[in-house]
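Reading a protein record of the kind used here takes only a little practice. Think of the row as the fold of the chain written in a discrete alphabet. A record is reproduced here so that you can trace the correspondence yourselves:
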Amino acid sequence: MRVLLLLLTLTAGCSQNLRSSAPGPEDPDAPKEFTTTDSGLKYRILRRGSGDKPGPQSFVTVDYAGWLDDGTEFDSSYNRREATSFNLDGVVPGWTEGLQLVSEGGMIELEIPPELGYGQMGMPGAIPPNATLHFKVELQDVR
């Protein structure tokens, strides 16, 4: 069961630490254009971190916001004011791949095509079938 429901995993892993209700600052020289990986994942590093990069099975703590193409936000740890912790091998492939591209303390924006997200099934009530997912993610901790 490779692709677990990202939102349930993220919500279940919430920590009790209060966090900001908005993302931290981006680097002034952060790229405006996205880079596309061989899998079709698009990303741009918004803030370079100085810590370790996670591996595909790392346990990470993040703050994030997720939205659809039309701008509808479907989930946000910022709104809950709680960082979220999870294993990278337990989320959608776009997150597993994307978070390995940023260092601890950094921030990345991801554009996840349906085949690396929830695909044809979507997630009833939150994410429609074949939806492209957008995330801004701050990598707080890597273990």
